[in-house]
Every structure is written in structure tokens, then in C-alpha cells.
């Protein structure tokens, strides 16, 4: 946005004063109640201060400068492309790579895409469009936007900031983990390629913990995290992960310190690079044996599963979090747009880019997992073939072996399946005593993994079998870092922008302060028990509070401000009236679906006792443990803290903001006959 000269500033001031005189000259045409009302001019524009006109006989014009000047002084995106990349980078995150493929596999394969698309249209796009619109119209962060509609709704913005901070605390830890694996990938072979050997006085043997699990599992839990057996055993700081966490927060701080002027430039790389990597991985994976098996397994529809209520609930939750609704990042980014930007086009475009990115990531993940399943199946066949050879002449007769099967050569998966079916048919009762595994590719693919288990265990194991595996490992973890950074920029912007708009502090100082505070609190997550804290925050810090935040956002616009009035603002802002579809979605359908989603989430939370998966070193396996009493208290606090702030009765934000100038309230009341609106030319007009 260009900077105004002094001449332009004076001209804008004159325009405002002339419009004021025009309003006062028509004073006698207005009702008596109108004369006693107060018109706030320019209250919704940028960071500027409103000018209050008392129409009760006297005129008091505050001379703190034109609101248009502050509008021009507000940072703006250098281009539409930069803004779209910022929104895409924020909405497309780690969940698209390691959550969506898992849900797709778990909930009916290709059939899962149907409920996801339906809910994207009736929940995702309308709410995304709503957040883009209010941010662009009012040009403030989440606190100022909802306080603009009603001072009693300012708590929505504060609750969003708190949830953003909670999420940022553990999300950047995951980026730190990715940085660690990225730094360890410049080795041939990769350090998680095989189990380490331990040497005693006479012999060398494999580490028992690794032998009982796998090389990648051992490396993740023991070498990377050095994890403790429970959340109660802190085990002290993991110094390598502490350094990685410091590096992650330093990167975020440097990218965000100048606001969108600095982070916007980084977006060109952080938003586009993951697509380059995903396409390269897809091409490479399709050239590997077994990749088609994975893709076929992925998209084979299981229509009966699609009718289950759980599938729709999980699809709605994924839509909700995939677009970053309720965090305040969407509002913050859109507040730096010009008011005549077509935010409806942006909402549809970013939503479908997000969806197709999830599908692309799913193709990549299951192409690679199909390749891994074939390798694991070949190992299983080889191991069980040795068992059959050992049983020949004793438990298994030579006459049962088909003539075309040659044990001196490598047995194919098809030959092994044929052989086991023969043995099962002949020795039906005694077959379990043979100890033979089924060795099925389908069974291997059905071992659903998500989150860190997919990224740091299953995928890393598959990459060890790639030719030039260090190169692909570097690319993969650099992609994870960029996906995480794009989401972190939006999350931090959701904290910084509303606080800067509200309290008028220097963005540089606030950014450094927030990053330092988050780093020191984040040391909790780089203890040996840190992985359990990450799981706790991931489970309890965001889901319920954000659902309530978004419900209140929807109600604030559709019922407090008014859908009809909001449609008029959109027509003034966009130059056209949006589809009537959004009217019914905002006013009736979306709030109802969100309330149903909230109810089902509360029921699920109540039916599932709080627990976490602990890694037990002696057993070399995971075990579900209940949280200790203090852990339950922390879980409850994570849920209740944002909800406490949401309550206008215990957190009267209007009193807090009353001490801060420039936060006007334009909430409509029954006695108001005037609604101040601002058109795109900067002229103020009165709508009777």
C-alpha cells in the first residue's frame, strides 16, 4: 500500500470534515432519537482512532489525525500472489501429510472423500469466507474484529490468542524434531538404517530394545527423544532437542520480526517448496515396486463405513483444523488486504488447494507405504520359507509341495500364499503349531499409522530402501520444516497482530518477547518426557476451545451484527452480492452443524478416559497409561483456560479495552437509526 504525502493527508482530512458538514446540514430531516445518537466515524478502519460526532446540538471532532492516514500506514501485501501463498502456507500444514492419509485409510478409503468434500462446502468454505471477510472489512486482528461488533465479544479474540500460543508451544517442537532428523540425514547409510551393535568382552550383539522393535523405532524413541517410561519421569533436558527448539524459534522470530514485510518474502519458498518435494516423491515412488498396491489399497472405497457417524465427525474435525479456523491467523492475514479484494475467490481457491494438497500427500504416502509393504512382505516370505524347509519331512510332507515351487530360489508372494493355503487345508487342526505367518501385503498396509509414527518411523523406514536414501531424507524433512514454518507464521501472526492493534506496542519487541517466552516454556517439551507433553497439548489445548470460538464467531456475525447487514457490507466491499447460499449457511446450517460437532466431541471426550501412549524400554513397545492426578489437572486447565477468557462475565474485555483508545464499538442497537459505513473511496455516508 503506497504511503500518502502530506498533501494527500490534508485532502483526506478535508473530505472527512466536508462529509461531517453534509451530515449536520441534514440534521433537521432526522428523527429526534437520531439527533441524540452518537455517530462514530471511521471506527472500523485500520489502526486509526475513531472520530466521534455528538449530534445533540454540539459537534466535538477529535483531532488525532485522519483514520485514512492510519489505513495507509497499515502494512500491506506486496502482491496478491504473496497473500495467497501466505494463506496456503498457513492452512496447508503437517496435518495434510500425516493426518489426512490416516483418516482416509481408516474411514473407507476413497469413500472418505465424499463426506469430506460435502463438509468442506457446508462448513469449511463458508467459515473461511466469513473470517477472511471480517478481517478484510474491519482491518484488525482477532481481538479488534470481535470487539468492533460488540465489546462483550472481545473475549473471542483473546481466547484465540491463548489457543494460538498453546498450539505454537508444541508445534514448534515438532519443527525442532524435523530439524534434528534433517541434520542427521547427511550420512550414508542413514543412522536409522539398522540396529546398533553393542560390544562386550567377548561378543557383539544387537541392542535388545532395537531387536525387539525396529531400527527406525529404536532411533526415534531412544536416539532422538531418549524418552522416559512415563510422563512423571521428566528425565532432564534432551540437549540436542533443546538446540533444535532454539533454532526453530530463532527461525520463526527472524521471519516474523518485521511482520508480513519479512514473513511474506519467506512464503515464496516455504509455501512452494513442499509441492516440489511431494511431486518428486510421487514420481519416484511410482517407479518403485509395490507403489500401485498402496494407491489401490488407499482408494478402494468401503461404502459401508461411509455411513457411520464417526466418519462424518472426523471429517468435520479435519476440515475445521485443516483451514486453521478460529486461530486468528486467517483474520490477521486478511486484515492486511485492500478492502476491495475479492476475498470470496480467495476462500474458494485456498480451500480447494488445501483439499488437493491433502489428496496429493495421500498419494505420496501410500505409494511409499506400498513399496515398504512389499519389502516387509518379501522379508516375511523369506523368513517363513526357512521355517517350512525346516519342517519338511517332519511336520510337513514333501508330497504337499507343488512341483513348480523351488525352495533354492526366492519364493514369490503368490507362491507362498498358495503353499500356505494347501498346508492350512491339509493340516487344518495342526496348522497353528507350524507358526507360519500369513505374509499379506493388505495386512501390512492395514497397519494404520499417523502423526509422528508416520513421519519419523514408517516413512523413514521406507526411505532407507530408496536408492540415494540420504538425498530423499534431506528433501522429506526439509519439506516438513517448511510445512511447519508456514503454519507457524500464521499462528504467530494470530497472536502478534491483535495484540499490536489493541495495545499499540512495537511489533518487533512483541515478536521477540513472544518467541523468547515460548522457547522457555517450550523447554517442557524437550525433556525426556517431552513427547508425552506434546501429545497432551495436542489432544486438549485446541479442539473444544476452538470449536466454541468458531461457533461464537458465526453467531456474532450472523445474529449479533446481522446477516443482512453483513451482506450489505460484503456488497459494498466486493462490488457484488455473494451467493444466497452463504446467507443460509451462516445463519442456520453451519451453526447447527458446529453445535452437533461440539456435542459429539464432548461426548467422545467424556467416554474416553484421559490417557497417553508411553514407550517402555524393557518391553520395547508402547503401552497406554492413565495420567497422574496432576496430569489430569493440566488437561482440564488446557481446556478451561480459553473458555474462562471467553466468558464476558468473568473477563469483561470492554473494561480492559476501555483504557485503550481506538477500539470503537459499532454494535447495532434497536434505537440506532444510523449505521456508519465506509465505501472504498474513503468517503463516509449515512444509511437511513
Cα distance, first to last residue? 32 Å
Discrete helix count:
29
Describe the global form: globular
Strand order of the largest sheet: 1-2
Q: What about the largest sheet?
A: 2 strands, antiparallel
In the predicted model, the low-confidence regions spanning at least 5 consecutive residues are: 1-13, 16-68, 653-688
The fraction of residues in strands falls at: under 5%
Mean pLDDT: 81
Please identify the structural class as seen in this structure: mainly alpha
Number of strands: 8
Fraction of helical residues: 55-70%
Radius of gyration: 30 Å
Q: What is the topological layout?
A:
Elements: H1 6-25, H2 32-35, E1 38-41, E2 51-54, H3 67-73, H4 80-91, H5 94-98, H6 100-106, H7 113-138, H8 142-149, H9 154-183, E3 197-199, E4 204-206, H10 208-212, H11 215-224, H12 239-256, H13 260-286, H14 291-299, H15 303-306, H16 309-322, H17 329-334, H18 343-391, H19 413-426, H20 431-434, H21 441-445, H22 451-463, H23 469-503, H24 507-522, H25 530-540, H26 543-574, H27 580-607, E5 611-616, E6 621-626, H28 629-646, H29 653-658, E7 675-678, E8 684-687
Antiparallel strand pairs: 1-2, 3-4, 5-6, 7-8
GO cellular component, one term: plasma membrane
Family: Belongs to the sodium:neurotransmitter symporter (SNF) (TC 2.A.22) family.
Pfam families: SNF (PF00209)
Amino acid at each position: 500500500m503506497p504511503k500518502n504525502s502530506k498533501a494527500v493527508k490534508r485532502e483526506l482530512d478535508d473530505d472527512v470534515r466536508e462529509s461531517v458538514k453534509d451530515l449536520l446540514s441534514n440534521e433537521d430531516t432526522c428523527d429526534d432519537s437520531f439527533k441524540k445518537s452518537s455517530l462514530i466515524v471511521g471506527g472500523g478502519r485500520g489502526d486509526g482512532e475513531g472520530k466521534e460526532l455528538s449530534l445533540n446540538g454540539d459537534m466535538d471532532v477529535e483531532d488525532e489525525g485522519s483514520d485514512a492516514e492510519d489505513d495507509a500506514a497499515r502494512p500491506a501485501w506486496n502482491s496478491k500472489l504473496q497473500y495467497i501463498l501466505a494463506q496456503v502456507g498457513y492452512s496447508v500444514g503437517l496435518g495434510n501429510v500425516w493426518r489426512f492419509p490416516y483418516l482416509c485409510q481408516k474411514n473407507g478409503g476413497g469413500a472418505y472423500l465424499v463426506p469430506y468434500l460435502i463438509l468442506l462446502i457446508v462448513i469449511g468454505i463458508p467459515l473461511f469466507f466469513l473470517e477472511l471477510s471480517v478481517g478484510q472489512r474491519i482491518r484488525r486482528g482477532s481481538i479488534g474484529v470481535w470487539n468492533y461488533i460488540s465489546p462483550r465479544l472481545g473475549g473471542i479474540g483473546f481466547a484465540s490468542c491463548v489457543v494460538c500460543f498453546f498450539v505454537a508451544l508444541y508445534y514448534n517442537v515438532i519443527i525442532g524434531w524435523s530439524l534434528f532428523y534433517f541434520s542427521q540425514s547427511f550420512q550414508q547409510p542413514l543412522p536409522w538404517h539398522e540396529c546398533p551393535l553393542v560390544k562386550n568382552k567377548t561378543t557383539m550383539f544387537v541392542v535388545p530394545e532395537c531387536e525387539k522393535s525396529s531400527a527406525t523405532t529404536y532411533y526415534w524413541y531412544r536416539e532422538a527423544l531418549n524418552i522416559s517410561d512415563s510422563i512423571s519421569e521428566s528425565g532432564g533436558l534432551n540437549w540436542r532437542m533443546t538446540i533444535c527448539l532454539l533454532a526453530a524459534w530463532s527461525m520463526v522470530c527472524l521471519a516474523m520480526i518485521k511482520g508480513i514485510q519479512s514473513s511474506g518474502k519467506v512464503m515464496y519458498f516455504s509455501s512452494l517448496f513442499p509441492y516440489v518435494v511431494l511431486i518428486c516423491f510421487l514420481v519416484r515412488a511410482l517407479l518403485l515396486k509395490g507403489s500401485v498396491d498402496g494407491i489401490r489399497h488407499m482408494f478402494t472405497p468401503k461404502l459401508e463405513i461411509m455411513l457411520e457417524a464417526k466418519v462424518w465427525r472426523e471429517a468435520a474435525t479435519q476440515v475445521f483444523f485443516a483451514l486453521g479456523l478460529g486461530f486468528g491467523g486467517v483474520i490477521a492475514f486478511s486484515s492486511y488486504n485492500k478492502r476491495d479484494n475479492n476475498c470470496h475467490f480467495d476462500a474458494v481457491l485456498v480451500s480447494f488447494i488445501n483439499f488437493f494438497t491433502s489428496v496429493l500427500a495421500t498419494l505420496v504416502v501410500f505409494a511409499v507405504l506400498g513399496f515398504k509393504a512389499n519389502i516387509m512382505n518379501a522379508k516375511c516370505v523369506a523368513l517363513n520359507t526357512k521355517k517350512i524347509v525346516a519342517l519338511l519331512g517332519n511336520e510337513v510332507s514333501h508330497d504337499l509341495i507343488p512341483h513348480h515351487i523351488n525352495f533354492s530360489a526366492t519364493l514369490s508372494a503368490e507362491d507362498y500364499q498358495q503353499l500356505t493355503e494347501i498346508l492350512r487345508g491339509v493340516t487344518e487342526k495342526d496348522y497353528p503349531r507350524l507358526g507360519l505367518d500369513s505374509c499379506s501385503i493388505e495386512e501390512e498396509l492395514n497397519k494404520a499409522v499417523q502423526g509422528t509414527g508416520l513421519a519419523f518411523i514408517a516413512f523413514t523406514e521406507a526411505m532407507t530402501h530408496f536408492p540415494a536414501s540420504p538425498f530423499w531424507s534431506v528433501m522429506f524433512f526439509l519439506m516438513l520444516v517448511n510445512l511447519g514454518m508456514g503454519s507457524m507464521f500464521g499462528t504467530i501472526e494470530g497472536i502478534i497482530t491483535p495484540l499490536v492493534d489493541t495495545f499499540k506496542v512495537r511489533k518487533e519487541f512483541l515478536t521477540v518477547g513472544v518467541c523468547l517466552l515460548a522457547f522457555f516454556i517450550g523447554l517442557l517439551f524437550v525433556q525426556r518426557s517431552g513427547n508425552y507433553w506434546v501429545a497432551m497439548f495436542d489432544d486438549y489445548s485446541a479442539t473444544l476451545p476452538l470449536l466454541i470460538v468458531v461457533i461464537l464467531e458465526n453467531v456474532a456475525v450472523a445474529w449479533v451484527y446481522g446477516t443482512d447487514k453483513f451482506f450489505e457490507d460484503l456488497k459494498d466491499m466486493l462490488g457484488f452480492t455473494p451467493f444466497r447460499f452463504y446467507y443460509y449457511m451462516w445463519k442456520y446450517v453451519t451453526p447447527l452443524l458446529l453445535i452437533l460437532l461440539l456435542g459429539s466431541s464432548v461426548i467422545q471426550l467424556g467416554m474416553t478416559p484421559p490417557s497417553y501412549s508411553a514407550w517402555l524400554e524393557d518391553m520395547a513397545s508402547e503401552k497406554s497409561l492413565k495420567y497422574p492426578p496432576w496430569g489430569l489437572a493440566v488437561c482440564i486447565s488446557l481446556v478451561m483456560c480459553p473458555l474462562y477468557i471467553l466468558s464476558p462475565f468473568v473477563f469483561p474485555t470492554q473494561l480492559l479495552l476501555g483504557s485503550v483508545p481506538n477500539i470503537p464499538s459499532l454494535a447495532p442497537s434497536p434505537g440506532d437509526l444510523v449505521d456508519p459505513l465506509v465505501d472504498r473511496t474513503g468517503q463516509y455516508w449515512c444509511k437511513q
